[in-house]
């Protein structure tokens, strides 16, 4: 390439790429291809581990309230095999511990699952690397994970944020970018819609197995915190499937009972300096329902002197300015938004819309049926709402936006990607979003979060958007 050509490419790039210190109201104009298909079944990302009955689809999630337990799950296809997990602290292989789990199976139309094992490892030490093994004989497979630091208001911790992942080439790109992120995130907050098996004929549950093998390379080594999305419902009365959430609850257990929840669809965990509340957009949440009562009690239990960062995860966004799933989160917003403002929630994360959007700190809680004052207003006690349903699934990107962009929408762009929430201490956290089309370190949108309890100043001017 000639020097002249390089110079003109550089000049064009400078014109196309603008870095903006912004205070709301930007739409990235980057247009990507709108459609994807699931990776073929013989793709190498779905490779089955060799050996008879070898454990596959290994995944872990936090197993208690405080981060001292881990649920290890895996699938054996030929026979039940062992329910045991052997595990030890790094450097102490001679003091191997053994935990006994259990296994379940389920049928879905004409599909019969493998043997799905779950095993709780308890009384783990904080901030410690553990190795663990599943399987027997020649098919033992070894993995490892780090436990979080002891709960402390200034404990730094780095979460990855992903949603609506699916299993296309774009999904693989998202996971690859996540794994390569130089911030080295330690756990994933996954905003729902995992496998998209239900987009295949008869909800082909083989696609739950392939998704489990595809994601193992990350989720076997760090916990993913699960949210229930609409693609987890798997309700199909026409083929006799009348029990909602069947594949999801058999495969992805969560520690809901530890937080006093009666169902695995809403629960909470604490991790490092964060109190994380998971809600279900697809379970009843009206007054008197179990989820309503649980959330009311849960918010009253949050201790910001122990866990300063209050983060809520749900699937259907409350503030969404795309022409997809428009206002699907509205009834839940009406029900709970005033609570979030009263309790000064820092951040609400959602998926569902296959795009990216970050809001200003706004609330819309003045409205009642007679006063007519229904309008989002700037509110320093309100959370920032982030939609990150841009994992890259088979349904493609949400590239149709409402116009004009509403004032409450700080930045939006229909590109695939992931984000990072990097807690520094009790007052500051750095948030950054990464699009798949950039290199691994490019922060396409970022913002310093000031904690709403310890440092409730205006943080809206800290955002930087790097858009095409
Ligand atoms: Fe969804």
The major beta sheet can be summarized as:
8 strands, mixed
- Highest CATH level, the class of the domain at 153-192 and 265-465: Alpha Beta
Ligand inventory: fe (ii) ion
How do the strands of the widest beta sheet line up side by side?
A: 1-28-27-26-25-13-14-15
Shape: globular
Task: Describe the structure concisely.
It catalyses: a phosphate monoester + H2O = an alcohol + phosphate. Mean pLDDT is 93; it is low at 1-23.
Features:
iron, globular, eight-stranded mixed beta sheet, Purple Acid Phosphatase, chain A, domain 2, binds fe (ii) ion, alpha+beta, Purple acid phosphatase, PAPs_C, Purple_acid_Pase-like_N, acid phosphatase activity
Description:
The chain is built from six helices and 28 strands. The chain is of the alpha+beta class and 468 residues long. The chain has a domain at 153-192 and 265-465: Purple Acid Phosphatase, chain A, domain 2 (4-Layer Sandwich), CATH 3.60.21.10. The strands form six sheets. Strands 1-28-27-26-25-13-14-15 form an eight-stranded mixed sheet. Strands 2-24-20-23-19-18-17-16 form an eight-stranded mixed sheet, with helices on one face. A four-stranded antiparallel sheet has the order 3-4-10-7. A hairpin with a 6-residue loop joins strand 11 and strand 12 (141-146). It starts with a helix and ends with a strand. Bound molecules: fe (ii) ion. Residues 164, 193, 229-231, 315, 352 line the site of fe (ii) ion. Its EC number is 3.1.3.2. Residues 382-439 form the Purple acid phosphatase C-terminal domain. One of its GO terms (molecular function) is acid phosphatase activity.
